[in-house]
Design a protein that fits this description.
The protein is about 35% helix and about 30% strand. It is of the alpha+beta class. It has a single domain (about 1-95), classed as Alpha-Beta Plaits. It has a 4-stranded antiparallel sheet with strand order 2-3-1-4. Strand 2 and strand 3 (about 50-55) form a beta hairpin. Helix 1 runs antiparallel to helix 3. It is globular and about 35 Å long. The relative contact order is 0.30.
Length: about 100
């Protein structure tokens, strides 16, 4: 499994609309082969900062399967207007996973 991580800085004052559009955009990412799950988390100390976590079966499921799809174009149309600056996306593999 590969985890995609992006820090999202949303234009101040646009947080509520971003959150609504993000809910809609979830249908596009979740329809891709290799998608496992995603979550959006909001920073407590700063209202316009979020973290996006997406788990994929493989790196290519994200970088090719999603990024080169029609669904990505819809995702992009809904969400990319909110970011300032545009986020850097990184990928991580799990080494240790502990659940209580």
């Amino acid at each position: 499994m590969v985890s995609e991580v992006a820090i999202l800085n949303v234009v101040s004052g646009k947080e509520k609309q971003f959150e609504e559009d993000f809910r809609t955009a979830g249908q596009y990412i979740s329809s891709i082969n290799g998608y496992i799950r995603h979550s959006l988390r909001k920073r407590i100390e700063r209202e316009n900062k979020y973290i996006l976590l997406v788990d994929w079966e493989t790196l290519e499921d994200h970088t090719i399967g999603f990024r080169q799809s029609m669904q990505y174009l819809e995702w992009k149309k809904l969400l990319h207007k909110y970011y300032d600056p545009f986020p850097t996306v990184e990928h991580f593999e799990t080494l240790i996973d502990v659940t209580k």
